[in-house]
Amino acid sequence: MGWSKWNRSRSTLSAEDVQGDMERQKRALSSISGMVGGGASMAFIGLAGAATGKLSADSSRRAGSSHARSVSTREKAFVASPQRQLGVRVRGARIAENKALVRMGVTLGTVPHALLAMVSATVPVMWKAVLALAVIVVLALIIKKDLDTPKRPYTGSFDGVGAEYDKWTMDGILEYYWGEHIHLGYYSKEEQAQKGGAFKKDFKQAKIDFTKQMLYWTGVKAPRRILDVGCGIGGTSRILAKEFPHAEVIGISLSSEQVQRATALAEKEGLDNVTFRLMDALHMDFDDDTFDLVWGCESGEHMPDKAAYVNEMTRVLAPQGTLAIATWCQRDTPPEFTQTEKDRLQYLYDEWSHPHFISYQEYMRIMQRTNVMGDVIGEDWNDVTLPSWRHSNWVGVVDPWPVIFKFNPALWYWVIREIVCLERMHRAFRDGLMQYGMIKGVKKVSSKAAAAISAAAASQST
Q1: Is residue 32 included in any domain, yes or no?
Q2: What's the domain count of the chain?
Q3: Domain-embedded: residue 150
Q4: Does position 353 have pLDDT exceeding 90, yes or no?
Q5: Domain check: are 55 and 179 in the same one?
Q6: What percent of the chain has pLDDT over 70?
Q7: Cβ distance 291 to 227 under 8 Å?
Q8: 3-class SS at 226?
Q9: What range does the domain containing 42 cover?
Q10: pLDDT per position as a tens digit, 366-413
């Protein structure tokens, strides 16, 4: 129909029609808002307005101009009839509502534009997040693979082992956290059961306690000459020198830096009955039957030939002298190791330059096969040493500053590798794959007498 006819028909609307029309518009607005759901409706309206800002502004200006012209014309031709007055109110209300909708950027025509704006604004952000997550995952996998790959396998000689200990001694990090003792600590059952657990104990004191507990376990009373095989920076040697002031104590190590540091610390304490030497534990420069106490604390792990290690310490041990060994051991067999267990052990070998481990029962068998050692005893001290592994990591968490302040990314990564290996050690000991072996025995006859007996037995057999 023509505009004038349509306009006249609209002017005859009843009040109910006007009310119904307004309700329909309100429902349309509500349905549009509902498309984005609850609190997101305002975001949708804003996006729609941003996407169609120029269109909304132009529509607003046109609506305002048209309204002004329409009102001017109606004022001239106005007849005060109720129906015409109602029609004017209807059109005025409609125009005002349309203006509000335009200002809010929500009209049926702008809905697709609003959706497009929302998608275009959201998709790049989503893909950036996906890309960032993918990069993080890839980096994590690369780092994990590197940490799972041992970096310091035993090279067939002590050179690599000595170089590692040289580096640890020079950077000072190990001494700062572990103190003068590069071995596990001792935690009694009472200390582990107390509130706060084993971590409440001073980490360095735990190592001193281990040395004293091991000394008590050996049962030695007044040795005159003591040999500390694998002495580190001399913490145990100095304790033994203080415990037996009339004894001569000698510590040997394959690290020249450790020997220098051990000597400096002994001089600082004013000890004149302890000395340190650079020496191969499998080929020692000592005569047979020399020492009353031969002490090997956590040095057997690096020995490629465990039998040669025990035999050489037995050779330099004097008759009635005591040989005491504390060492990390793998469990005895049978049952045989599964492939998973073999892989776990191989990592522990290759990350800290270990040729291989044996069981403490095998150490006992080796000692018994010397034919000069008696009263051989072996024990597993895993229950009193296990907390050391995680306690070592814990002291680094509590006090990380010596590492951080060095501003050395290579050192930071090295420390991370150590943390990972310490945790793997903890799990291996916790799961029974590894044990903490304590082995001791007393030499019954001299090495010379034993050699004579062996020679006589060999001649008789021929």
Answers
A1: yes
A2: 2
A3: no
A4: no
A5: no
A6: 73
A7: yes
A8: strand
A9: 3-120
A10: 999 999 999 999 999 999 999 999 999 999 999 998 888 887 888 888
Task: Collect all residues with Cβ–Cβ distance below 8 Å to 389 and sequence separation of at least 6.
Answer: 184, 422, 423, 425, 426, 429
Say if 88 falls within a structural domain.
yes
The answer to whether 331 and 433 have CB atoms below 8 angstroms apart is yes
Asked if residue 212 and residue 115 are part of one domain, the reply reads no
Q: Among residues 175, 180, 257, 298, which one is catalytic?
A: 298
- Candidates 174, 213, 175; CA nearest to 191 is 213
pLDDT value at residue 298: 98
CATH code, domain with 190: 3.40.50.150
Smallest Cα–Cα separation from 391: which of 146, 108, 170, 185?
A: 185
Tell me if 149 is assigned to some domain. no
Distance CA 445, CA 456 (A): 15
> Helix, strand, or coil here: 229?
strand
Measured CA to CA, the distance from residue 108 to residue 112 in angstroms comes to 8
Q: Verify whether residue 423 is a known catalytic residue.
A: no
- Residue with tokens 């950027």, as numbered in its chain: 105
**Contact partners, residue 244, CB within 8 Å, separation at least 6:** 222, 223, 226
Q: Nearest 5 degrees, angle CA 236-CA 239-CA 244?
A: 125
For 299, 352, 355, the CA distances from 161, given in Å and listed in that order, are 11, 8, 10
Cβ neighbors of 226 (< 8 A, separation 6 or more) are 237, 240, 244, 247, 248, 249, 250, 291, 292, 293, 294, 295
pTM (2 d.p.):
0.71
